[in-house]
From TrEMBL, chain B:
Topology versus the membrane: Single-pass membrane protein
Gene3D superfamilies tied to this protein: Anti-sigma factor, zinc-finger domain (1.10.10.1320)
Transmembrane helix among keywords: yes
Location in or out of the cell: Cell membrane; Membrane
One GO location term (cellular component): plasma membrane
Organism: Hymenobacter setariae
Protein name in the entry: Regulator of SigK
Superkingdom field: Bacteria
GO biological process entries: regulation of translation
Keywords: Cell membrane, Membrane, Transmembrane, Transmembrane helix
Domain Anti-sigma K factor RskA C-terminal: 123-285
Cell membrane listed as a keyword: yes
One Pfam family named in its UniProt record: RskA_C
Length: 186, 292
């Protein structure tokens, strides 16, 4: 594991930030940006690919987080999980609506998968967590499944179809991969 | 009921972590997590694992994006923030004016709140009603579809049943004919030959003297003018006795036809009579005749 602190792990600073956002302190937004933008942008960029669209989605996500912060419930999960999910959902909505425009969904999915496979090594910027460590822990098949599910916006059934694998295989790989990842911070 | 081991193995927690579940299913998983510490722990671990994965893919946004994005975000939330407080005091302005000009009329403001609340309820009720109507419409459509499917199935069944009855009738009639033809001891075969006016006409009668049964079997008869039917007569001691009229199918030679029972006869003959038959034969139309 990297010895740098993970921002996904809640701290007192995070709790204070949540309080300030709830108090409608706009300066807290700047701090929020500095703390989370790289992680959120990384996820968004991996999903939507296009840089200008990623910027739009990041902006939408920040506005949504600002308006929805009241509904964030710390007992259900960490702030990081919550904000990443908001960003991820907006990004997935973006590619889904784009695929609608193109009207050929399969085409869109193929494109995004191919682009992802090629783009993956170039855009890796292990800044906080040892990504190499993750790569070492996950076998390529598990990586592929997790990438499709997490960055491709695929459901497990869609991923099974995309990879031409039985659904059970995809589920097993996803589950094993998630367990491996979970172990990394245990 | 459920136990936490089943939940851990159901795959639902993974789906939750990956964001695959709909809100209802999410709420269910959250409820399970609050019931079972083991589920909570597993779910947190899965979520944390994905968080680490997300964080591992962090990309520092390009230079210049910070100012652009933060600027637009702050502008959006900044303009949104003042409008909300500005909108709230607005209704209070007339309230204050009313109470200032006429302190006794202080009732409108309290009335406004229940009205608003009531209209809120009214909207909620309307939405609920609308949803219910849509639901009912869907159910009604389904019901209609099911009913028409059922009607189709029932009419198919009726058609099949009547077809079966027809087949059974035909079978029993065929069996009966076969029995008649295969029982030379019971049935006496009477050949009816054409009269001089109709030399090619031929038919036969199968007569059971004991049971008094009479069947007729046509080989060839001249075509009938409209409104006429062939009628069979039994001649007993020279007296003609009505044995019934031949159906069109029998006249065409399609099969045996059972005629009226005849007690005693020495000969059979056929004449052409008006449809439905006559009480006595029109002798000059006699087509075939044969003695037993």
């Amino acid at each position: 594991m990297s010895d740098e602190p993970l921002i996904s792990i809640p701290t007192a600073a995070e709790a204070a930030l949540v309080r300030r956002l709830r108090a409608r302190d706009e300066t807290a937004m700047t701090e929020f940006y500095d703390r989370y933008s790289a992680a959120l942008y990384g996820v968004i960029q991996r999903i939507v690919k296009a840089e200008d669209e990623a910027e739009d989605v990041l902006q939408e996500a920040l506005v949504k987080i600002w308006h929805a912060i009241e509904s964030y419930d710390p007992s259900k999960g960490r702030l990081f999980t919550w904000v990443v999910n908001i960003s991820r959902n907006l990004a997935i909505d973006k590619i889904r609506s784009r695929q609608h425009r193109v009207s050929s969904r399969t085409q869109g999915l193929d494109d995004s998968l191919a682009a992802q496979r090629q783009a993956a090594p170039a855009t890796f910027r292990p800044e906080h967590v040892g990504l190499q460590e993750i790569t070492k822990q996950l076998v390529p098949e598990q990586r592929q499944v997790i990438d499709l599910l997490y960055f491709g916006g695929f459901t497990q059934s869609e991923a099974a179809e995309e990879l031409n694998l039985p659904l059970g295989t995809v589920k097993t790989r996803a589950r094993t991969a998630l367990k491996v990842l979970a172990k990394l911070i245990r | 009921m459920e136990n936490y081991q089943e939940i851990l193995e159901s795959g639902r927690l993974e789906q939750y972590a990956l964001g695959e579940l709909d809100p209802a299913a999410r709420a269910e998983v959250e409820a399970q997590a609050s019931r079972y510490p083991e589920v909570r722990e597993e779910l947190d671990a899965l979520l944390a694992g994905l968080d680490v994965y997300a964080e591992a893919h962090a990309i520092t946004p390009p230079a210049g994006m910070r100012e652009r994005v933060l600027g637009r975000v702050l502008a959006e939330i900044g303009t949104a923030a003042p409008t909300a407080p500005a909108a709230a005091p607005a209704p209070e302005v007339p309230t204050m004016r009313v109470s200032a000009s006429n302190p006794h009329v202080a009732s409108p403001p309290p009335a406004a709140a229940p009205t608003a609340r009531r209209s809120g309820w009214a909207i909620a009720a309307s939405v609920a009603l609308l949803l219910s109507l849509v639901g009912n419409a869907l159910l009604y459509t389904n019901l209609q579809q099911t009913r028409s499917d059922l009607a189709v199935a029932l009419s198919e069944q009726t058609r099949f049943a009547s077809a079966t009855q027809v087949m059974e009738r035909r079978l029993s009639s065929t069996q009966e004919q076969l029995h008649v033809l295969r029982s030379p001891d019971e049935y006496k075969l009477v050949a009816l030959a054409g009269t001089p006016a109709h030399p090619t006409a031929r038919a036969r009668v199968l007569f059971n003297k004991v049971a008094h049964r009479v069947y007729v079997d046509v080989a060839q008869l001249p075509p009938l003018p409209p409104g006429k039917q062939y009628q069979l007569w039994a001649l007993d001691q020279g007296k003609p006795v009505d044995a019934g009229v031949l159906t069109a199918a029998t006249t065409a030679g399609d099969g045996l036809q059972q005629m009226k029972d005849i007690g005693s006869a020495q000969a059979f003959a056929m004449t052409v009579e008006p449809t439905g038959g006559s009480a006595g034969p029109t002798l000059d139309t006699m087509t075939v005749i044969g003695n037993i």
